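Intended use. Records like the one below are meant for learning the mapping from a protein sequence to its folded structure. Do not use them to infer anything beyond what is encoded.
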Amino acid sequence: MRVISAQKIMDTVAFLAVKANHVLRPDVLKAIKVAHKKEKNKRAKKVLAAIVQNAMHAKKHKLAICQDTGIPVVFIEVGQGVQIKGDLKNAINKGIERGYNCGNLRHSIIKDPLSRGKPGHTPTVIHMDIVKGEKIRITVLPKGFGCENKTQLRMFNPTVKLDEIKKFVIDAVKAAGADACPPYFLGVGIGGTADYGSLLAKKALLGGGSYLKPFLVRKLESYLLRDINKLNIGPMGLGGTITAFAVNVQTYPTHIAGLPVAVNISCHALRSATATI
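Structure written out for the chain above:
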């Protein structure tokens, strides 16, 4: 049994909170640069160049990539061979608080969703999984709400045709239009329950090896990306061939009587940072 202190977890979360907001993920930055080379529309190409330049300045000068530093979503995988010394949930929230303060990141979280009130940095949203091993893997995903507000969920009948699912996802992008700062990264969750399908869609934004997925899922991702990029929404809604950088579909077993499908859209500033302790 390996003992990991709550202090160590808090320190790690604080570091990740700053890194995620200041340094664009390498795979995301690469996708934007590739899109910039492919884009033919001159105005769209300029926008993509500005997005890359913004990311470079943010990293160099330790500034937020986007003024909306989001609601910090923390994914934590705890090895079953780990004993945590201290209060895990408290450590995560204190880590977010410290990281957001040190990184001069915007207060965006209101404690009461109905009465609203003065914003702060916490409490955060925490998703925890128990896994094999004696390590803890932590990911901080600051999710801006311009794109989070465009999330969609539909409970399909089990007899639904694949074309209807495709249409639902594409229509979700059409509905988002230019409002959520395209080009987009799309997470699609299929299966589970309503809540788990939505979680799958958000987890899909963290990436993952498509080569490990069933052929039908990989084919669906390719089809969706191709057709979304025919919508001519383009970077910041100015038109062009790049409306989405990537589509990641995650699936999970579900009940014989239904088929949940969720779409979670991220703006071009898809931010996350991960560490293992």
